[in-house]
Amino acid sequence: MAAPVSIKDEILDELLGESKSAEDLFGKDGLLKNLSKRLMERLLEAEMTAHLGYSKHDSDGVNSGNSRNGKTKKTVKTGNGDIQISVPRDRESEFEPALISKRVNRLSGVNDNVLSLYSKGMTVRDIQAHLLEVYGTEVSRDLISTITDAVLEDVKAWRCRPLDEVYPIVFIDGFVAKCRLDGHVENRTVYVIFGINLNGEKDVLGLYLGASEGAKYWLSVLTELKNRGLKDIFILCADGLKGLPEAVEATFPKATFQTCVVHMVRHSLNYVPYTERKAVAADLKKIYHADTVELAEQALDDFELTWGDKYAAIVRSWRNNWEKIIPFLDFPKEIRSAIYTTNIIESLNRTLRKSVKNRGHFSTEDGLMKVLYLAIKGASKKWTMPIRDWKLALNHFAIMFEDRFPKNFLP
What we know:
The chain is α/β, with parallel strands linked by helices. It has three domains: 22-55 and 66-105; 107-149; 164-400. The protein has 18 helices and seven strands. A hairpin with a 2-residue loop joins β3 (166-181) and β4 (184-196). The longest helix has 22 residues, at 31-52. The chain is elongated, with a radius of gyration of 29 Å. 27% of the residues are buried.
């Protein structure tokens, strides 16, 4: 990345001149737009000089075989609105500007604006209105489609990219989006597979659309991850997705399956009236905040004594899923929350749900995937630090999974 350009105060004072307001600086005919025009034209002149090999009016151009041949007007769409510039021509029509190519009438800033707005779930009509209102730029539906469709190649490459061989923790969660299929709008579940790599960095391993769950479906998803290079998962945390545990057993037999405790609690509280939810939640918390498995079992027994007659379904659910609930208790308290809950992925899912909410429904799966991919790209820019207490977690993984921990890994 190039270093920021330093501009002396004297130059700024000269540029500002008689400007006194924001309109003078950033308005339709303000300083910024005029400065952008002059800078673009200056750069185009420099490009022409480099192309011809001599400066304007230079004697080296005499009988050189090619020369300047006037200018043409061109309206360029930029991130700050439409700007009309003069583009130099050469007699042989060989000049190909790098700044703004022939038959192209927009700078990358327009693409960036369109993609940013699209990733937030704005419709084509909304994007058109926004760019016209804020920047005074009229953008056609076809241009917006062209810009966003170009993302599909990136989406395909991203969904097929190679993965790390080991992800200590993988989370799977889903949410519903509406998509038109065979002329009918149907609910499609978007499954997000989210991994934490050996450096403690977050990574979305894949996005999958499913009309229904089942072992066969999950077997195909997990097999695809293996084909992309994923060889081992230490802990896989998910909600009660039908058929997933069986598929994990078939594809990653050494992986520890951890039921998301937060989902267990939410599911349990669905049976409880509002007046008693706080008390029931507090007693459930004693179970998953216990220091050991034995104390957790005692807390579950106590819960049954207190609430078993009223909420037998809750007790039955926890006992039936007990072996998939307790694996996180083998780890220190400081890192348990990173293992037993999909909250870390639900934060991303909130962003993804928000990005599809405004659209109502998508006419194609490709349209849905474009929005989700762009939203993930935007969210991932904030993932600059390893997850909390990761070094502590890594040390325990190295001991507990010694035979599977990469020998050559250096944190």
